[in-house]
Amino acid sequence: MSNYETKLWQIANKLRGNMDANEFKNYMLGLIFYRYLSEKLEMNLNKDLENDEITFKEAYQDEEYKQYLEKEAIEELGYFIEPECLFSTIIENINQKKEVIPLLNKAFQMINDTSFNTESQKDFQNLFEDVDLDSSKLGATNQEKDKLISEILLEISEIDFELDNDNSDILGDAYEYLISQFASNAGKKAGEFYTPQEVSTVLARIVTMDKTRLKSVYDPTCGSGSLLLRVGKELTTDGKCNVSDFYGQELNQTTYNLARMNMILHGVKYNDFDIKQGDSLENPKHMGMKFDVVVANPPFSAKWSSDKSFLEDERFSGYPKLAPKSKADYAFIQHMLYHLNEEGTLAVILPHGALFRQAAEGLIRKYLIEKLNYLDAVIGLPENLFYGTSIPACILVFKKCRTNTDDILFIDASNDYEKVKTQNKLRPEDIDKIVDTLQRRRETEKYSHRATLEEIKENEYNLNIPRYVDTFEEEEPVNLEETRQKINEIDKKIEEIDKQLEPYYKELGLKGI
Fold first, then answer.
1. What is the C-alpha separation between 226 and 195, in angstroms, rounded?
2. What whole-number distance in Å separates Cα of residue 381 and Cα of residue 78?
């Protein structure tokens, strides 16, 4: 663990006794984000004022500068914060033993209000609604609340996030680290919005294979945005991201706020991402749009309405059945395929049951393979990779324009991992092996197999990986005569030991065993 990660975890521990991880993450991440927005604005405006040989704080005292500075900040960054509400000013107030929560609340409100009716409104509105500075969980009195928040802000101020380094992503990495730690330490509830980095990397490398840039990437269940950002990271050269636009939708309001924060923290400009809040199946926000790449880690076997009206929805019409109410896995696949452009790649994480469950899902699976021929690969992952569930998952890869239309590649990567505490983790060599096998469509004994469509048809479109990749290890034959002799030898030794112990039994008045 690096020094800044250690520091961040120390800060988290200050809140640990007051509330559970799923709550105090909102304060930690919100205050880190506030610091980022504040210092980014102060640094940019100071740079704009260099030729005037005056700082932002000094210039704001002059009425002639005020309107210009606010307009410049909103156009460039999408928001504005007055000098008295800047992070640096609040730290000065803490050192002078002054109250800070009123100024923090004012700063949050200012970020919200200054983006209103501007191009950046959708990305900054209500970002801090989960940072409740008036909560009794921070303390019984205003003084106690102020003291705790002041301590946290001082700790955050001591971390060097290298904001003036264009190639540095320490703040974004810290943010990602905290999200992963909250997920691993708070169980399923806090882990719902986080896909482990290593799994995200597999998906990102698959969908960016042989690509140098993308116009768009979309995630219909984007959580905190980590998977979208990982795709961007795979196509970043010399500090420049070669993905033009990021699109996503997230059901949970708190996690939706995290996703918008996370985008900005990782240097994605407010006009280069479009994250919406809502249920992507029941209330899709990007209808009619097609994307170069689609990725997702949907909630496993989630419920949805499966209402008959969806038979008229262009995402689902044409298929023989709707996905069942109790399992929306194939509804997500259909939704994602609708949004995939003709030359694009789709990679989705699903529970293994999606490979072989019958009834409506079996009919949809058959249609995808037999009629559309979109399924390109099936990859089995190790168990216990995800926070909150130990079940093994798989990755399905889809392409509308496949170059290998006569077969589907099956990869069994379930045995390649390392154990870290209670979780399993993919190593770099495990990820490389998956990606290289997929790229070369290589067949390897007990690891991968290119199954013909006829072979899959013979298996009644059941995609269970062991049907195609034989990982059976033949056990060495047992020599029964040798085993019998060893058992006889052991029996003789036991008899000898019993004879040696017999005098002691008599002396103690015990019967021999």
1. 7
2. 41
